[in-house]
Amino acid sequence: MIFYLLLTAISLLRNTLARLSVVINAPVIVCVDSDSGDPVTVLRIFQSHVMYGRPLNLTSAEETLDGETVPILVDRFRLLSTTIDELLHLYDDGCDFRKPLEVTFYDEMALDLGTKIPDFSSRFS
Asked: DSSP strand E in the chain: where?
């Protein structure tokens, strides 16, 4: 089962990367032209070209997290399999994965103030 899920995830990522190759070329050109060696600057350039929707995190107390997201509902105890299932369904529906994920865990209806994504992603490491 896990082998099938991993193969499916790899296929999904490969197809998504193929779609994004055109979008990714623009920030690469900007980075090369600006001769930026600072990793934070490079990541900000890529984020500004590749992602859209709401900001990933709050930068001030007055800011709100408004904008488009991709909502997913996952199980904290079956994180990998439920995440892959959600992403596959979204992919089949033609989802634009350039929007930030809005993660909700089963039975946890907390407001996402930019802290759930780091919690979500840290569970994969």
From this structure: 70-74, 101-105
